[in-house]
Amino acid sequence: MSLSIEVRSTQPFAGQKPGTSGLRKKVREFMQPGYTENFVQSIVGACPRPQASASASAPGSCLVVGGDGRFLCAPVVHTIVRICAANGIEKLLVGQNGILSTPAVSCLIRAHNTLGGIVLTASHNPGGIDNDFGIKFNCANGGPAPDQMTDEIYNLTTKITQYKIVPDLVCPIDKVGQYTFDIQGKKFEVEVVDPVEGYVTLMKSIFEFDRIKSLICGSPQRKPFNVLIDSMNGVTGPYVKRIFVDELGASLESITRTVPLEDFGGAHPDPNLTYAADLVNTVKNGDYDLGAAFDGDGDRNMILGRNSFFVTPSDSLAVLADNLNCIPYFKNGANGFARSMPTGSAVDRVAEKLKQTMYEVPTGWKYFGNLMDANKLSLCGEESFGTGSDHIREKDGIWACLSWLSIIANTGKSVEEVLNNHWNKYGRNYFTRYDYEDCAADVCNQMMDYVEKKITDPSFVGKDFTFGSKTYRVKLGDNFSYVDPIDKSVATKQGLRIIFEDGSRIILRLSGTGSSGATVRLYIDSYEAVDVTGDAQVMLKPLIEVALQISDLKKYTGRDQPTVIT
Ligand code: G1P
Ligand code: ZN
Fold it and tell me: Residues lining ligand 2 (ion), CB within 5 A?
């Protein structure tokens, strides 16, 4: 039976501007008639592809589609299928039940050479009808669309007058299989895939599973290494079951919250000390050698050692950089390291020692992709619990955990010993981030303008700021801008930086991923060569006070305390 395309009139919706990683809004906004359709039509319109009409067999007119299983995922997958069918896309690879982790989408795009993929997620933000949803486009390299493309998508959403859809197309996305449809005489294919399979194959090509298995199960030389892996009811559940239990021999008690739920069971699926407090408490009070948690869509990770010894993401990146020899994927070495600007600079010291080029890019994973595609970057990370390598073009939570297990299996050291050795070797960049969530947007913008004016005034350089016995002298104040070394594109106003003479840094920026109000992020990074075992909050107190003083943050936001401290 041939299905017909319908052209429907619509009008633009204001403010559909994709942020740090796609369009994130409240679920109910996506439920307004035409809203999701408009955005998907605009993505398909901006997607660079061989004109399907030019030849019936135009190569590669295929997209990957999947999401983290949050409320609205499955219905939006059906909408995407119907709109793609109407717009000449030839094939879709869809995760069963619409489920695909963000790293798995990146993996599938690359493995199947598709034009790109559409990811349905609001990452670490809560799910359910009263919470968040998001739509993100990833390009042919597997990474988030660059600014030029998100700008183009946004432009289309401001001008849209109609979208095309095949309303009668019904695809059984709950059953793995190949489905073919006739759309007004043209073939359209949907392949529903097992969400886990391709990703597991990739992990097996990167790590020595046997070695990690004997660490977890124990050997005559070593008692079993107890892990506790928390999927926070997000998308990683099925991946964790398959990899940690079926492949690596962990017991079912070693994994928790592994059923993806539409509302994440009420959890805020962000693997940090606040929102993953359950894991932190369980590991603190139990007999666990390593705890790990992943966010809703599986790209973020938090690593804990025995007694919940916390590994700061910036340190995690530095440790991986220094131990790449423990991971078979890197047997020929690395091609450069990178971190986002606010990320603590611990990895810079490793890069210097190993003579690796170090790149500092704006916040958001999309900036790493160009460097990786040009073979200039192998390993990168962000302070926001994101770590990854050029095996895909997204950060990857499970990969980070397997990397840590590889290091432990190879060195025989505990998580805490690995960190202590690292600090003794390189010194320590104490790091903390304060988040002030859901503030009023206008006062935050005023604060940013005020601080920018202040710190870019020439008289700011050389000023001394004192708290207690500590004095910091300003070396530089600016609003970070970045020129991409590969395509020379420029990103301006990426965050306010105050850098002091001793290398300590204060960074202030507004989040680009929130779905309501504004979130202020304050980052503090300070290096100590010798005093490496202190408590980060105590060590950083003077610099935090200086930051609050310079920014007048309490006055502008009306907040005495941050919502989250990392
Ligand atoms: C946040 C993080 C950033 C990360 C992004 C997507 O963005 O800070 O590092 O890439 O989420 O996970 P922000 O809200 O700060 O713009
Ligand atoms: Zn995420």
Answer: 123, 295, 297, 299-300
Collapse the DSSP code of 441 into the 3-class scheme (helix H, G, I; strand E, B; otherwise coil) and give the result: helix
The answer to whether the pTM exceeds 0.70 is: yes
Identify each DSSP E strand in 121-183 by its residue range. 132-138, 162-165, 177-183
| One domain for residues 270 and 402 | yes
pLDDT tens sequence across 318-351? 999 999 999 999 999 999 999 999 999 999 999 9
Which range (70-74, 412-416, 514-518) has the least confidence?
514-518
Clarify whether 251 is annotated catalytic. no
- Given 382, 404, 426, the domain boundary residue is 426
CATH number at residue 520: 3.30.310.50
Q: Could you tell me if 507 and 455 are in contact, meaning their C-beta atoms sit under 8 angstroms apart?
A: no
Query: What does the pLDDT read at residue 18?
Result: 84
Q: Which of 384, 394, 438, 522 to mutate to test the pocket of ligand 1 (most atoms within 8 A of CB)?
A: 384
CA distances from 79 to 3, 16, 165 (A): 15, 18, 8
Interval 429-469: pLDDT, tens: 999 999 999 999 999 999 999 999 999 999 999 999 999 88
Of all helices (H) and strands (E), which one includes residue 328? none
Helix spans in 166-272 (H): 197-206, 209-217, 237-240
Question: How many domains would you assign to the chain?
Answer: 3
Instruction: Report which residue type is found at 332.
Output: N
CATH number, domain with residue 133: 3.40.120.10
Q: Which atom of ligand 1 is nearest to the CA of 383?
A: 9
Token match 């969530």: residue?
Answer: 437
